[in-house]
Specification:
This protein is of the alpha/beta class. The chain is built from 5 helices and 5 strands, in the order H-E-E-H-E-H-E-H-E-H. The protein has a 5-stranded mixed sheet, with helices on both faces. Strand 4, helix 4 and strand 5 form a beta-alpha-beta unit. The radius of gyration is 12 Å and the shape is globular. The model has no long low-confidence stretch (mean pLDDT about 90).
């Protein structure tokens, strides 16, 4: 699935649009950033409620293309700027992590 397909098919709010032609090959759901660094697959989408700049840094280290912020949490400007600088797309949804994970899984 391409990043642009995620936005179109799930109607998630796009906060940062980078690399919309990038492929999402897998997904990972976690709110513990050390867990993400150790276990998330490359070229994946991270489904989380962690909406801060450190999430972008971890995503960059783990070669994650997309962040999906759940529960409609606000994303601070410094996080969005860091994501744009790193070429990472950021989406937001009112879905919780369980529902968002299920929806993304259905598309992959």
């Amino acid at each position: 699935m391409k990043v642009k397909d995620l936005a179109e098919k799930l109607s998630y709010e796009c906060l940062v649009s980078e690399g919309n032609e990038e492929e999402i090959l897998d997904g990972y759901t976690s709110d513990l950033l050390s867990d993400v660094m150790g276990n998330s697959p490359e070229d994946s989408i991270l489904i989380t409620i962690q909406a801060h700049k450190n999430t972008v840094a971890v995503a960059s280290l783990a070669n994650i293309n997309v962040l999906l912020i759940c529960n409609n949490r606000p994303a601070p400007d410094d996080m969005l700027k860091a994501a744009a600088d790193e070429g990472i797309s950021v989406f937001r949804t009112k879905d919780n992590q369980f529902t968002a994970s299920w929806k993304v899984h259905e598309l992959l």
